[in-house]
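Sample intake — carbonic anhydrase
Collected from: Miniimonas arenae
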Amino acid sequence: MSVLPEVLAANAAHAADFGERGSLALPPARRFAILTCMDARLDPARYAGLAEGDAHVIRNAGGRASDDAIRSLVISYKLLGTQEWFVVHHTDCGMEYFRGDVMAGLLDASLETAELGPNGFVDVGEGPGSPAGHDVDWLTIADREQAVVDDVARIRNHDLVPARIPVYGYVYHVTTGRLIEVAEATAVGAAS
Ligand SMILES: [Zn+2]
């Protein structure tokens, strides 16, 4: 069963109640951006108090400062005026549960969904898979706080990021809903 009918029904209700939001400006009104994980338990609009039109939210697996995430952040300030950025990773992130070589091995075996067992992910699908996963940097996370520090530092030190933009580092706790600062990351990301 596809979720398609449910999504379209929800959208019809959303559009029926759209009101003044149709006249929102393109640049984010509160002039900030959040880079965070795609994890389904994280809702940046709720954990950071966003309404439509307030802020940019850039999401990927892990909330990592990949080349593409930085592409979005550069557009965010250069063309759309954001002035402060957050990097928000979280507890129990799936990116902590595998390494890049494991992922490539699972994809070598098959393109079916793997299963998470007591010793990590195992492939249960029928082949063939593909070796192309060996060419991807999966940006897995070995140390949660250090990953936030690393991502903030990568953004801070990027040639296209101005020193005036502060970059704050946080971990969202999926058991409490709280954002906990990674002080070392925020220090690395301080504006100058
Ligand atoms: Zn995650």
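Post-analysis note: The domain at 27-98+138-188 is CATH 3.40.1050.10 (Beta-carbonic Anhydrase; Chain A).
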